[in-house]
Amino acid sequence: MTTVYDVLVVGGGVIGCSIAYQLSKRGKNVLVLEKNQLASKASKAAAGMLGVHTELNGGSPLYRLAQTSRDMYPVLAQELKEVSGMDIEYVENGMIKLARTEAEAQTLLEVASKTDEVEQVQWMSPPNLSACEPYLSKHVTGGLFIPRDGNVSAPKLTESLGLASKRLGADVKEYTDVYDFMIEGNRVMGVQSSIGPFYASETIVAGGAWSQSLLERVGVTLHAYPVKGECFSVKYSKKLVERTIFTEGCYIVPKPGGRLLIGATEQPNTFDETISAGGLMDLMNRATSILPELSYAHWERAWAGIRPQNQKGLPRIGRSGIWEGLSIATGHYRNGILLAPITGVLVADLIEGKENHQLHSYVGSF
Ligand code: FAD
Ligand code: GLY
Question: Is the entire prediction scored with pTM above 0.90?
Answer without folding.
Answer: yes
